[in-house]
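Box S1 | Example of a co-folding query
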Amino acid sequence: MQAGFFVKKGGCLDNMMISKRLKTIADYVPPGSRLADIGSDHALLPVFLLTRQICTFAIAGEVVDGPLQAAKQQIARAGLSKQIEARKGDGLAVIAGEEIDVVTIAGMGGSLIRSILENGNHLLRGVRMLVLQPNVGEETVRQWLHEHDWYLTDETILEEDGRIYEILVAERLDGARTESERLYAGNRLALNAGANEWNFRMGPWLLWRAEPLLSKKWQAELQKWQTVYRQLEQSQSAEAALRRAEVGQQMRELEEILRCLQTDKR
Ligand code: SAM
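Box S1 (continued) | Returned holo structure for S-adenosylmethionine
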């Protein structure tokens, strides 16, 4: 669904609109960037950023022919064929040398984003910023960033059309590992257990800001776990008992965090 951000083109308003989710990602891209948008589909993000003259050059990377053709058409329609190249390739393989300084990867699962980063890690040499929007599995993306010395500089959570999205921004910083360890070890909520683990799951900045949408998202997760717990109660097996104990422990920790978030709301 398009949320109403018009692209200004040649002095008049073009009728292209991008979603609130893509607009929030776009807002993180610094002026003058050379961008690779991986899994670009219709190339809406690079077209928006080039039309706004925020980027000077962009690659719209796609691994599937259909979306690649859609990207080419969108770029041609916007008159941006000289500034945006639609390239076919798997993940970061569309980047050559150090031509790119910002990479966006949005609208995929966290595991896929992680594998794209892992497989193309050597192609990130010139890149100074990653803006990532996993649809699910944010934890695995945070873990990868931490393990590969990318410092998580910011996070945003937003809701659009009844879905909650998280956007993770990471940059290369001197001493990233130490800073990152400090970030994830932070126990501002005075948790009895598992601060590190919950920071990776829920997002250290989102927790720090006690984001109301974070509570909403995890309240829904808690309800799912409660259902699982009730189902496990029906079974007499030793495995079910073990699993019930694990789920119960996780639920108690999450309930404690949600209580802290309630009282910390600012
Ligand atoms: N990034 C856009 C967005 O956020 O609106 C499009 C998201 S769309 C759901 C995911 C796109 O990623 C699809 O067009 C798919 O073909 C592409 N894709 C999936 N795996 C990919 C990979 N390994 N390399 C490049 N593109 C990939």
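Residues 6-13 have pLDDT under 50 and may be disordered. The pocket of S-adenosylmethionine is lined by residues 22, 38-41, 61-64, 67, 90-91, 106-108, 112, 116 (CB under 6 Å).
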